[in-house]
Fold this protein.
Amino acid sequence: MTMFLTIAVIVLIFVVIFQISKASEYVSVLKGEDISRKQNNKINGFLMVAFLVLGMIGVWYCNKLYFGKTLLAVDSASVEGARVDSMLWITLAVTGIVFIITQVLLFWFAYKYQESDKRKVFYFPHDNRLEVLWTIIPAIVLTILVVIGLRNWFLFTGEPPKDAMVVEVTGKQFNWIFRYPGKDGAFGKKYYKNIDDASGNALGVLWDDKLSHDDIVTDKMILVKGRPVKLIIGARDVVHDVGLSHFRMKMDAVPGIPTTLWFTPKYTTKEMKELTKNPDFVYEISCDQMCGNGHYSMKGIIEVVDQEEYDIWLIKQKPQYLVANPDKDPENAKPVAADTAKTATKVVAKL
Amino acid sequence: MSNEAVLHAHSDAAAHDAQGGHHHEHHHHETFISKYVFSQDHKMIAKQFLITGMFWAVLGGLMSVLFRLQLGYPDTTFPWLEDILGKWAKGGHISPEAYYALVTTHGTVLVFFVLTAGLSGTFANFLIPLQIGARDMASPFMNMLSYWFFFAASIVMLSSIFVETGPFSGGWTAYPPLSALGDASPGSKTGMDLWLISMALFVVSQLLAGLNYISTVLNMRTKGMSMTRLPLTVWALFFTAILGVLSFPVLFSGFILLIFDRNFGTSFYLSDIFISGVGALPNEGGSAILYQHLFWFLGHPEVYIILLPAMGMASEILSVNSRKPIFGYMAMVGSMFAIAVLAFLVWAHHMFVTGLNPFLGSVFVLLTLLIAVPSAIKVFNWLTTLWRGNIRFTPGMMFAIGFVSLFISGGLTGIWVGNSALDIHLHDTYFVIAHFHIVMGVASMFGMFAGIYHWFPKMYGRYLNNSMAYIHFWVTLAGAYLIFWPMHYEGLAGMPRRYYDYSIWESFKQFAELNRFISTVAIIVFAVQLLFLFNFFYSVFKGRKVTVQNPWSANTLEWTTPIRPGHGNWAGEIPEVHRWAYDYGKDGKEFIPQTTPVGADESHH
């Protein structure tokens, strides 16, 4: 019922607008088209400058309402992200100034030079000095922005510091899988045809590769505050994207082509809860590349902790090799024979 | 005196006069089919493109209203949605499948069918022959084919909406593997086949059209119409056609490879894929990124295919209605040339975060920001054109001014996202949505509206209603800013594009109220476009008749034709051109048409 009412109201508004518009057209023809055109011109000239003023107020008001809800209201959660923020402010200053100058000129000229019988237009077809002026100034300003941008870009995409920890991130419809290299600091080889979700091998790791025996697979990424982390990013099915908005970073996950990304977390999750004054705060990985109908729900969680907490967490993790091959797990089968199982025993023993 | 009589009181005598010569030139008999359906008259083909484009604009706009309902009111049910969408909106709630299909189809049809075919298809066809002084296109038959290929593309695209597995739903860029694998997304089954067929037909249409435009501009200019005397509209449409002819084949090649991957077991784009529930696919060695290169090699020039016609028309309309020459004609042509060249050298700025070689990325940053220079030149030239003019706010002029405003607003954020170190943060967020909707979507729509309002008297021999036009303008301009300006803030919060529901995200759920506001404004703006449509079709049949040959007192050649020109445009000889198109306010004369010979006492500039 409300729907029909809404339609009726809309149709009614249309009819009213149409009738008024038609009537004003008749009036203008009767009154003399020139006179009514000039009247319209005055009205629209005024509206031009009114739009400018209201628009600028709107820009200010919008900022007042929503600035606090953006990431800029809180510090960047990564050391490198702070550079993104400072670059963002510089770019905002430059484009903001240009925006205000050009919009003011546009609407002010429209108002000021509206048709008047008294004015003689100024025949001004070209002026090379002006053209050179507004070729060179933008070129210089843009060069500065390019230089700042590329310096940051090469830092972001360059090699991470030597002490960086490494985490492998794999996207699949519609969740994330994380792998830590374990004690040996190296990942075991994997091949996609080995993927078998049922037997605990979601990544297709080759268990024959001894390097894989201490790899830890998790559904949550734990990072250490102040310690750079290098992500090795891949995808199992379609293109995904590791979106880390709090860290100001992002990288596609492409099947068959590994990508990398590194950054240094600056605040633990706990500290961010205080900074944002939001007790429910979590670092979320959002999938930023359309990946299917569940795209919007493809969430990953990052927890940033301090080193000590991380060590405790790490020790509690059982290598995926043992999860996928329970017969090799010393907890299940004693006595233990294999070398690899011995290392695992040590880990378990520490618990 | 009846109302109708008031409107047309003085029209008949004058109209008869102006059309005097036009009756003899009709030697051949025209049937309904040859005049309105399979017409080879460029003016009729232009109208066909325009009206088909309008059909798609309404459909594409309606789709955006539907998915904005989901974004603005995620918890509300709309039972009528189930009535019209059936299983796609069970319980009055749009399903994710339907949401993504709507988003994808909205993007595809708005970019290709409305802002490419509807914009340059309409105005290149209409204006090129009329403004260069030609009786028709170089090949009227190819021109007709170009429309009908577009029509066929439209039918196929439309039919994909009714497929059981739904239309394609992987985003308008159709990145594989998602678009290649029906098992990864139901929309990538039959819907994607139809999408590809439709797009292939569309590419054929664009190539036929583009080659025609180029050869017409190069070969069929009237006597005296040197390239440097062409109106800027023609220059813009010329560059547009060149961009299309050089880049659409690359897109086509990308589609061919995709068709092979989908249907014939090749691995151009596919490698190392395991689909849950299906298992590992045999494909190895392909590169999903290759498709992105091929796509964006068209995709970026496509942005300028959409923008350049709007720029050209805005330049012309701003000059005519400021009663002042366009400032820096050669700089305008030069900057369009620069944009056309750079358009081919910036495509990878869409791919900064794909794992692209960082050095390659840095080259693309440099070239991308370089485009801001010719864009700045154009903006300042438009501003200087207004300066010390005598501005008439015709509806066309209003939209041209609105175009400049939107082009500035959206162009400036291009400096943000074109810089890779910022893009790494802003990529695929609402910031990007705001950026390209303002600069390419709405700005080009404004260019198109400006063109329609300005040339409607030439197309149909009648005027549009001004009051409705002004309402249309002000609501659309204010609405466009209200919709897209706050989206920058959502983007600065990292809010990703193409999400069906944000309420499960701690980081993005704070904008629920803003989303509702944006959706409400979008519905109002859509309603006002219906007002425009009504104005359009009403005025085609019932509008105030044009009684003077040159209602805007413009210099260009189309206003030397009869009020309702027949096939062939000029009744007698094609006029000769003696000057450029922008002698407004010269030597104290209001305007000097291009056909007026240069007087002995005329000043030089």
Observations:
- Chain B is about 60% helix and 0% strand.
- Residues 583 and 589 of chain B are 9 Å apart (CA to CA).
